[in-house]
Design brief:
Strand order of the largest sheet: 7-11-12
Helix content: 25-40%
Number of strands: 17
Structural class: alpha+beta
Number of helices: 18
Amino acid sequence: MLHLSSDAPATSLLPLPPGMRLRCSYGGPLLRSALPFWPVPRVDPRSVELWVRGGLEQDPPPKRVRTEPPPEAAASSSARVLTDAVVLSRRKALDEERGVYLDGFAELVRDFGSMSGLLRRMQDSGEEVSGRAPSLIAALSGKSTATLAKRLCSLRLLRRWFRDVGKESFALTEATLFEYFEAVERDKGPPGRPQALREALAFASGALELQTKGLDSSRVRGSALKSLERRPEIQQRAPLTVEMVAHLERIAANPLDSDSLMAGALCFTLFGRARVGDIRRGIREPTLDERSGNQGGFVQTELLAYKTARPGTKRAMPIVAPLCGVTAAPWAQTWLRSRAAEGLVARDGFGLFAARLASGGWSTLSLSTTEVGAELRRILLAGGFVGDALRNVGAHSLKATCLSWAAKRGVAPEARRLLGYHRTPGERSTASYSRDELAGPLRELDSLLAEVRAKTFCPDSTRSGYLRATPAPSIARSPSPSRSSSSSSSSASSDEKGAAVETTTKDANEDVTLAVGDAVLNRDSGVLHRFAEGGRLECGRRLPKNGGKVADWPADQRLCQICW
């Protein structure tokens, strides 16, 4: 991990890949390269736009520099590999990073003085106000390192402004906060800075017991909202196209492809509608849940550490992905066999996005979310997809793909919310007792993917072309039986399971005799059901008015998930 100090000589060199865009959102004294293992030339740091001022004690802590290579650079490089030295340096940096932020919060607690209830408690306990104080560590234990970095940056920017305008004490009042927001607006500072500070003060109110009552007045809120009007349009990550998903499935199903393991993890994240940041922290190996007769199924795992987990809880979140994607390729089976052949087991520390070592083998250090996004673009670009199509493709495109398809298909919002692993605040107890609340939404997703395979649903089209009509499958018509035979058949069915019964289903204005287990097509919905006893379908529904007995049907026929 390379650090570039503000007092470093002008001849210092920084390893960056050619064409990589480096973004730094504030003028901190340190610059961290997030990808030190790129085998690329070195460039003079003066070519990097970096605003440096003051010392470490006055400036915000260094934020993680986001490095996002363009698709061309990603495609020209090979798969991500880490050297042993890089693995050790990364682990050491991750351990030290949280300590740096804890030290920063300790400085703020001292500056807040009597406004911080946590400071009073630490003094009463005789603790030294430092990043190693047990009280401070406990107060911030439920917060991620990224959250600490974000909140600390906002609070330190405020403290630096206090010193720049000559205020002697760091005493927060509603008037000074409004003055700061107006100064940011007048100087055309970052439009999100006031709102970020409001969030940081709310954070400090809970974690540091900071007295913030009366600070969030109407004019303070209005000033923050006024700054947000200067923000550019939000650009969300684009979902992958059907052809992109098919390309990933084909690579994952080919064990001889060097990108098979990476493509398999990408497919599991995509069809599992999960965040890459959650999947990379998984410690349980995925397992298969296949239907009999190789008729599809699911691949699933459980996560204990995920973004929406409540601090201190150990409730596992299931991640379930259908085995049948947009092609018939057995991507999940091949992916899990390849992981087993390589000795990759999640509980042993080899996550689903484990990094390959340059010396051979695998590291227990997973690729970051940014690196997974770069791998996704590299694989797609190598598959012939042009750079313009990948300009807005990233790691979050994996979670957005199936959810966006479900919205285009008209799946109910409640089902989509569950597929995205979200729930409304009042549904916690309902979800706890349901045990498997994903069962119904997963059947809808399975049917949606079957329509994509049959090309009756085209999510890449425009609104007018999402759904395409297809001819109904062939119907086997039985001759109309006599009333006597129907009557005898009906009476016999009460004593013998599987015998023919008289039904009210019409086919070409003729009565059709159905036996238990016969296939019945609902021509209105295009769904194929199975006939059961009692004159109903296996799923409990009544016989469709516009239905018919089916003798054979194509492999991609849409089936009722309950009947079959």
